[in-house]
Amino acid sequence: MDMADDHFLLRLAFFSSVIFGVSVIVTWLLARHLKFLDVPNERSSHTVVTPRGGGIAIVTAFFLGIALIGFIGAGSPLQTGYFAGFLVAVAVIAISAVYDDFKSRSFTVKLGAQLLAIFIALFCGIVIDGTELPWMGEIHWGWWGYPLTLLWLLGLTNAYNFMDGLDGLAAGTAVIAAFFLAVITFQQGSQFIYLAALALGMASLGFLVFNLPPARIFMGDVGSTFLGLAFAVMAVVALRYDQARVSLFVVPLLLFHFIFDTSFTFVRRFLRGEKVFHAHRTHLYQLLNRSGYSHGKVTFLYAAMAVLQGSAAMWMSTQPARYYLLMFIPFLTLQAFYAYWVMNKARSKGII
Questions:
Q1: 3 state SS for 305-350
Q2: What's the Rg (C-alpha) of the chain?
Q3: CB of 309 within 8 A of CB of 253?
Q4: Under a CB-based contact definition with an 8 Å cutoff, are residues 110 and 99 in contact?
Q5: For 77-112, what is each residue's pLDDT tens digit?
Q6: Contact yes or no for 100/53 (Cβ under 8 A)
Q7: DSSP structure class, residue 218
Q8: Is 37 left (phi over 0), alpha (psi -120 to 50) or beta?
Q9: pLDDT tens digit string along 298-327?
């Protein structure tokens, strides 16, 4: 390693440390002074009154990291339209969610704010224009790319929001997925997405210090919807604009357990004739917790899944694109067995 490499590593260490430190400090201040509290009710997984809205720390530290990108590398995208769209979109979703954390609104109003943020991203060019599929080669979507991107951004934003229900679950997965995304994009020659992913991971790690079971603060919608949209947008930016041109399938694989849990629960409730947009406690992770597994055990299980998916995503990124979708088969099988196991446990406990 030459002197230039040493200087780069020092700058990277400084970059990471500052983001982590700011996240820890802001989270600590929020945990001590935030007056907006999450009071346990019949749908809650916690039993102690706890401050919510701690995702403000993740958002604050992340934007500081974005401001420092120019300090790390020459390829800063801060003046480009698509990156401005990225930042404005996640800022809109965060600001809207802060209001919701402090004054609950209907799902329709939340959806309107999410669509506004997503339309900003689409307007600024964050659109899936093509996808490499097995045995079909590159598929160019044309105008179909807009509804496809809308579905992807909206879906992951809400999936992440729905999965924020146990101490450390959403933040822990964010740390793992972001670090794997940073490594994968860096190895493939990324100029800036690896830094954005690293910033997201360090910001989430600082918050996680106070969110591990038993949590002293919850991230709230401001954290969960922000993380979901940030991961979704970074997947498209990494595909279209970053030098690495990382496959769109990397982020879905990194977060596959979240996507599966949300999709499985949505379909199951829809087939049972339930109101799918109403609050409930029947996600797989919630059923497992209600079956007798502690917050810590369930969170550890989902973290282990995230590590497995991250390792697979790293290997997948070194293979020909025609094999990418095949990598999802073992994880789909694993999740199907997991769902079967959890549902049986919940039935035996009389929960469902």
A1: HHHHHHHHHHHHCCCCHHHCHHHHHHHHHHHHHHHHHHHHHHHHCC
A2: 20
A3: yes
A4: no
A5: 766 788 889 999 999 999 999 887 777 777 788 899
A6: no
A7: B
A8: beta
A9: 999 999 999 999 999 999 999 888 888 889
Q: Which of 219, 195, 222 is nearest to 207 (CA)?
A: 219
Tokens of 334: 């694993």
Listed residue (14, 11, 22) closest to 72, CA to CA: 11
Among 15, 187, 61, 77, residue whose Cα is nearest residue 7: 15
Q: What is the predicted pLDDT for the residue at 39?
A: 61
Distance CA 62, CA 331 (A): 30
Of 40-44, 166-170, 330-334, minimum mean pLDDT range: 40-44
- Dihedral angle at the C-alpha atoms of 166, 250, 336, 208, nearest 10 degrees? -10
SS3 47: coil
Give whole-number Cα distances, 135 to 314, 325, 331, in Å: 22, 11, 21
| CA–CA gap between residue 341 and residue 135 (Å, rounded) | 34
Q: What is the average pLDDT value for the chain, to the nearest integer? A: 90
Alpha helix (H) ranges present in the chain?
A: 3-33, 55-67, 69-72, 81-102, 107-123, 145-162, 169-187, 193-211, 220-240, 250-254, 256-271, 284-290, 295-316, 328-348
Phi/psi-derived region of residue 106, left when phi > 0, alpha when psi is between -120 and 50, beta in every other case: beta
The neighbouring-strand residues paired with 139 are 131
Predicted pLDDT at 80: 78
Q: Residue 40 is encoded by which pair of tokens?
A: 């346990």
Token pair recorded at residue 59:
């958002």
Q: What is the model's pTM?
A: 0.93
Locus of tokens 């790319």: 145
